[in-house]
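Friendly challenge for the regulars: who can give me the structure tokens for this chain first? No prize, just bragging rights.
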Amino acid sequence: MDSRQAIGQSLKAADMVCMSYLGDMNDQELQRRPHAKCNSLYWQLGHLIVSEHKMVSQIAPGKMPQLPAGFAEAFASQPDPAAPTFSRDQLFEVYRQQRAATEAALAQTSDDQLDQPSGIHYAPTVGSVFSMQATHWLMHCGQWVIVRRELDKPILI
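First reply, four minutes later:
Bragging rights claimed.
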């Protein structure tokens, strides 16, 4: 297994965990906050999508599809807005488009390129930016579990 394959497997594992936690939640449930001082799951999902788009665009210019009009702006405000601009299904579709582009950009990146500086202080190499796409999503999953428990959703993982 090479570096790209290892990172790719991490992306797929994170996708499996995250989509398992979010897959049976509806629009209203995604509006829940795990705590009064936390953003809603809806906002977190949009934030993760925008972050992935921005980070991967920095290391692989022109490889990411454009976000829908108003998408980045909808997830820039904090606290998150009371009325969602995009539906759950729209968020999931934009996520799938962005993640597919991330995976394609990773596949087109050489081992030497993975070691190149990214210009991002918290993910200093191109390889670490790709890895961050899995870990960033998983960092938020702990909050999603809290909401799932409050909603009496099944324990999945």
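The helical segments are 3-22, 27-30, 41-59, 71-74, 88-107, 111-114, 126-150. The first strand starts at residue 117 and ends at 120. Your move, everyone else.
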